[in-house]
Structures are given as C-alpha cells and as structure tokens.
Amino acid sequence: MYADIVVPVARGPFTFRIGEGAAGICPGMGIEVRLGARKRYMGIVWRLYDRPPGFATKTAGRLMGDAPLLTPAQMELWKWMAEYYMCTLGDVMRFAMPAALKPAGLTEEEFRRVEYRPATVRYVKLGPSVADAQALHVALEGLHRAKAQQAALLAFCAAFPDGGVGGGELPRSALSAPSVVLNKLEEKGIFSFFDREAAVGAEMPFDRAQVPLAPLSPAQTDALEEVRREFVSQDCVLLYGVTGSGKTELYMHLMADALARGKSVLYMMPEIAMTSQLVARVRSVFGSRVTLYHSRLGERRRAEIYRRLLASGGGELVLGVRSALFLPLPSFGLVIVDEEHDQSYKQAEPAPRYNARDCAVWMARRSGAKCLLASATPSIESYVNATGGKYGFVTLAERYGDGRLPRIAVSDSLRAFKRGERRLHFDKALLDRMAATLGSGRQVMLFQNRRGFAPWVECTQCGWVAHCPRCSVTLTYHKLGDRMKCHLCGYSSALPAACPRCGTLAPGLMGFGTEKVEEEVASLFPTARILRLDRDTAASPARYERIVADFERGEADVLVGTQMVTKGFDFPKLGLVGILHADNLLNYPDFRASERAYQTMTQVAGRAGRTDAGGEVVIQTMQPDHPVVRQVQSFDYEGMVRSQLVERSAFGYPPYGKLVVVNLRHRDERLLGAAAAWVAARMRTLFGERVYGPHPPVVDKIGGENYLEILLKIENGRSPARAKELLAEILKEAAGHGEYRRVFIFCDVDPQ
Ligand SMILES: Nc1ncnc2c1ncn2[C@@H]1O[C@H](COP(=O)(O)OP(=O)(O)OP(=O)(O)O)[C@@H](O)[C@H]1O
Ligand SMILES: [Zn+2]
C-alpha cells in the first residue's frame, strides 16, 4: 500500500510505501516519516492507494496513535485553504496543529522527547482474584492480620453499592493509602491498576458559573429575532450594530441556542488580550464549557485542548483568535466573528496567508453551520455581501441603556496653530474639554497611532533623516533608554550628537509618539494620573491587563495609547476621547486607507459615553474637510461605503474584483528586479492589462532584504481559481529558472 503524506514543510505531500506494521491505517492519522537522510517528522496520512507510483519511494515509519488526528471537516478545510491561498498542505499543517502534536527531530530520542503524551491518572479496580462477592468476602477475611491492606480494600469497597465487584473504578489517589500497601494488594491480585487519560479543559466546576442570560432590550430582542429569521434561509448573517449596542449579549443568546441543541460553537475575536472583560462575561454564563484558545497558552495546553475537542461529541464553546479556526469541532453549529472588519483576522506572514473571517464563512457553509459576522464598522466587502443578498443583514442602531452615541467635534489644528490656540500638540478645543472632563471626575482617553517619543529624527539644518540601515523606515527616538529604534527589525543606535551629514546642528526630534504625548499631558495637567498603553508599556500580556484593569478601576485619569486602545473596551467612567492627529490615518497610500481610517476613528470614538449620555470626542486634524472626517463626525457609515465604492469600482478593487499580490524578496536588488520583470512579463502574456507592477511596496526593504510586488486584478465574473492555476504555473517556471529560482516568491491572496 502507498500513501500521500502531508509533512509540515513548504513542499509535498510526499508519497511513501506503507510497511507491514500499519494495520488500521486511514486518512487523517499521524505517521512517522523521514525526509532527507535524517530528519523525522510526524506526517498526516492524506490519501491511500494500492497502485505503486512510477518512482522509487521510501517506507513510512510507525503509526502514531490509533485514531485520526483530523476530522474529515478539517481535512476539507486544509485542502480548500491550500488551493485558495496558493500554498501547500504542509504550510497549512505547520499552523493548524499544535506543535506538541506534530513532533519532529533529528534522532529518535529527540523525536520522542517532543512527542505529546497526554497526562494520565492512575486508577484502581478489583483484581483477578476478586471476581465476585464471595471472593471479595474471602479476600477481606484473609487480610485480618494486615490491617492497613484491609483498610485500603474496605475503603475501596465502600465507594460502591456492590463493593466494586461489578467493575467499579476509583482514582488511586482517592484511597489515600501508601504505595507499599497498594503494591502488596496488587501482588495478591486483589487490586489492579491502570492509567486513564486525564480529563482536561474543565477549568471551573460546571455548576458554579451560571449567571442567567441578561434580559435584552426591545431593540436587542428585535435584532436577535431578525438574526434567527435570517438564519432560516442564510448560512451567514452580518450584524451591523453601533458601538455599545450590546452585540455581545446577542451572541450569548445565539450561543445558548446552539449549545442547547448539542452543537459546538466557535466565538472568534481579533486578539485575546483585548477581551479579558468579555471572557469574564462569557464565563459567567457558560462556565466550564468555555475553552480559551490563543497563542499564549503553552504548547502542551494547546495539544490537550485539541485532543479533548477531537474526542468530544459537541456542546463545546471555544473562544479564540484566528488560529482557533483549526481546532476540531465535531457537531459544529455556529461561528461568531466579532469585529469582523479587524485586520488581525488576516495572517500576513508566513503562509498560509489566510483570512480567518473568510474561512469561517466557508466552513459554516460547508458543514451546514451558521456564521455571524458582527461589527460596528463592517468591512466594505461584508457590507456589500449583506446588502446584496449574499448574506443576511441585521442592524442594531441604538446604544444599550442610557448610552448615547458621543458628540464628535473636529478641531482644525493648523488654524488653532495660526491663532495661537495650540499648546504643544494640543488644540485649545481639546484642552478645554480635557479640563472640563477631568474637573468633573471622569476619564480621558487619547489616541495617537505612533509609539515612542519622536517618530523621526531630522537635522533641522540640512534635512538629513535617520534611517534604519537594514529597513526602509525612519528610526524612532525613544526617551526611555535614550535610543533611536527601528520598529521593524529592532535595530537601535544612539542619538547622534551632531548631524552625520553636515556636522553642524544637533538633530531635531520630529513628530510625536505616545511617549511624548504622555509627557505633554503631564506638563499640561500636572495633577492628572496618566497611564500609557502601547507595545512598550504593555510588552507582556500581564502588563497589558494590569494597565487596562487599573484604568477601569479609576486608578488613572488619562489613558494615552496606540491602536491598542481602539478595541472593544468598555470603561464606565470614560467621558472624553481625543484623537490627536487623524492625518496619520488619512494619508496612507492604500486603497483601503479611507475605510480603515473610518473604522479606527469610529471604534476609538465609540469608547466614549457608553454608560451615560455624556460622551464626547475631539478629532484634531489638519484636514477638517476630509470626507472621512466628516463621515466619522456624523456616523455616516453608509456615506463612507458609497464614496469608497465609487472609487473602487473605477479601479476594479474589491468588492469589484479579487486581488492577488505576487511578492518577491531578495537581498540582491538587481537580481530581484530582473526576476520581477520576468515574472510580470510572463503574467502579462496571460492576463494582459490586469497586471500592475512590479513596484516597490510602501516598505520595500526589511532586515536587509528588498521587496517588490506585482498586482493581479481578477474582475468579478472571471474565475479566480483558474487565474490562480495559471499564476501557479508561472511561479513553478520561475522556481525552475536557472537564475531566478534564488528569489523568494510567494502569493498573497486577498491582501489586506
Ligand atoms: N441586555 C443587556 N443587559 C445588561 N447590560 C447590557 C445589555 N446589553 C448590553 N449591556 C451592556 O452595555 C455595554 C455595551 O455592550 P457591548 O460591550 O456588548 O457592546 P458592543 O456592541 O460589543 O460594542 P462595541 O462594538 O463597541 O464593542 C456593556 O457594558 C454591556 O454589559
Ligand atoms: Zn530595521
């Protein structure tokens, strides 16, 4: 027999002969194989057949375990992902399976050391010499001189109405007798011991949690009913609910529905860190059914969860980030994708470069489950799918309870500057609102999407700017540590005392990051207690959670932060949100820049005034008349979508077409350029005008490697699958080309 076996490397599947010892082999099982002379992997049996292939094959090693490690649904997902995202099954396997479940190593010992063995618990039952009540009686009598043994046997028997002769089993630890005593009983055939795989996952006793579901407001009830109605005819529904409308409570009802039917539920969120508030809420209702899954869990824990779910019969509730998509979920009934617009659902690097939201939609459709996408700022793609009838569409337009959408004011920073109404990086309009808010004992949140002190260092005399020697970005000056740092590769250097080019002036610290904002707030409001939330202050998840919890408890008055503050927070005392420099968001050279700017500003603004009517937002910008600023100010999501659709249709961008970006990377700029030109020319022979580039991406050098990209637009109505097949042929040619094969080339399908 032969098998195609998927191995967690970028090539394959590989064909192996299956030896004698592999009785019971079937697709989805783990099997030990060797690639090259020495390296051992656990591979996944993908396909079995009898006809020998027309080439020499090696023989696979032992089967690992006696049941498949993948459900048929998982195998289908892997296959679809590899095709759709133009990568290998091995690429998918690398990410889809917890490392502890797929050991690899050079030697047998190394391999076995990492191999996952589930934790076990020792159990005891009656042994061969105690087959019935009569024998038990005899055994007890026989122990009248060995009191400790007799006591242990009696303790065992007491646990069962029939004394245990009917096959009763107890954990060994329940007997609290010393090993010598138990060993003697085993020697006499009175006890026998065995191991059982430890039950994992239950982190909270099931019956301890159970707070009832919250009663819904009339608007929430209507929306919930509408979602349920839409699910009758649609696999996928988009819930467009403004910030603070209480979408989470809706999810809880839907999850309870599915669980009550014995189905399993996957609740996906962009980042687990932002969700401590939410996790606590879900746990309070569903208790020990909730399994958290994210990359910060240890490898062993991930493997345990995987195995437990694989064996489960349904009724599971998994809360996780994008990688939770790869868990086995027998009896899958519902997937919820919270903040569906969020970019972190897309894995940018490395392969598989998948979008977990899109995979969730596919999976639900495939397995007859339901998928709810939800956001206060849906992605344009999802919105178009929903309003076009491809998905169901439900709106929740009002905030829950006393919350009102905040008042948003726009401040023209240039004008403020000209009138002398600007201090440091703060316009008078924002300063006034800050003073009033702090004066009334409420909290302020300030958003600036740059960390560090000064995002660039420039000679004020000759214009020289400090760049990373390895990447095409400026170095950011960090006051803490007094160094200039590259945010891409980690390179750092001291601040030069004089300009390296003209040697005259001391270089100027330009722009402003969160570190500087914090310092300025301290000088403007000397008594305010300030916290900062960015990658520098929240380097570990524990520190992140501390900052959020401290702010939530009111232990600080001002929270300064980057993107990190835009997500999902619910701070009851937050009265004012300030966006310090909206222009950073507006001027990004990408066709999604306006959509993203709208989403980011609306989300961060949405943190204000969630529990009472007093929320306020001030947006500082040099482009107060920019359409996106206007749209954010008037909560005009539809207006934003309409104007973006006009632009996108003119250029054939999604949703009017699909994009595939061919990325090329090499240290040698000349070789890279030649390879890219060659690939682009080959693409043009097939796709003509639909090919754009090669051109350098926004950041075209990282860690000493140069990047070029070629864009392929596939207009609606053309088969993306066919286009990808043709493209894959070209890339195969490139991989076989004498010179260009040295260039690393990959495709990014549906780039974000
Ligand atoms: N039915 C309800 N009963 C009690 N409290 C509710 C209910 N619905 C919502 N809330 C409360 O209202 C607040 C906002 O709800 P939630 O955080 O779910 O909003 P959201 O729609 O997820 O907003 P965002 O998109 O901004 O994250 C929370 O404090 C939540 O506890
Ligand atoms: Zn760098």
TrEMBL record:
Coiled-coil residue spans: none
MF-aspect GO terms: helicase activity
SMART domains from the UniProt entry: DEXDc, HELICc
Cofactor: Zn(2+)
Binding residues annotated for Zn(2+) 2, in chain numbering: 468, 471, 486, 489
Domain of life: Bacteria
Cofactor note: Binds 2 zinc ions per subunit.
InterPro entries: DEAD/DEAH_box_helicase_dom, Helicase_ATP-bd, Helicase_C-like, P-loop_NTPase, PriA, PriA_3primeBD, PriA_3primeBD_sf, PriA_C
PROSITE patterns for the chain: HELICASE_ATP_BIND_1
NCBIfam families in the record: priA
Protein name, per record: Replication restart protein PriA
Organism of provenance: Alistipes inops
